[in-house]
Write a structure and sequence with these properties.
Layout lengths: L1 H11 L3 H11 L3 H9 L4 H7 L4 H19 L12 H17 L30
Helix pairs in contact: 1-2, 2-4, 4-5
Length: 131
């Protein structure tokens, strides 16, 4: 039947998928066709039901609706282990006090009376000028 759908799609300037979806709607039971026409059920779901056996269509539609509803549910946000504003402030103050405390104790090599000579002599890397 795909060959016929391709020919019809070409004739209507539509895709084969578009034709297939509309043909699926023709296979709906009279009750589901009425729900489609009244807008009670969306064509999106009914297209997926139309290819089922008539006695399975209503059950399959309910299954699809339940699946769609479950997908829309957003899980509740998980409990955050992030610190509160007060905890962050206390942490920042504690960090600031400990970070600054070492500045009075640190000594440079010169303060300690040590002098570090380079182990190798640095070369002048600028080009020499010759007369």
């Amino acid at each position: 039947m795909v060959g016929t759908q391709d020919a019809l799609a070409t004739r209507l300037h539509r895709s084969q998928g578009w034709v297939s979806q509309r043909l699926a709607l023709l296979g709906l039971t009279p009750e589901l066709k009425e729900k489609l026409l009244s807008g009670e059920e969306p064509a999106e779901l009914l297209r997926r039901v139309g290819n089922k056996k008539p006695d399975e269509q209503a059950t399959h539609l309910e299954h699809l609706k339940a699946k769609k509803t479950a997908a829309k549910r957003v899980p509740a946000p998980a409990q955050s282990s992030a610190p509160t504003a007060g905890e962050r402030k206390a942490e920042a103050e504690a960090a600031a006090s400990t970070d600054e405390s070492h500045y009075g104790v640190m000594k440079t090599a010169e303060d300690a009376g040590e002098r570090h000579e380079p182990e190798h002599q640095e070369r002048d890397l600028t080009p020499s000028q010759t007369p």
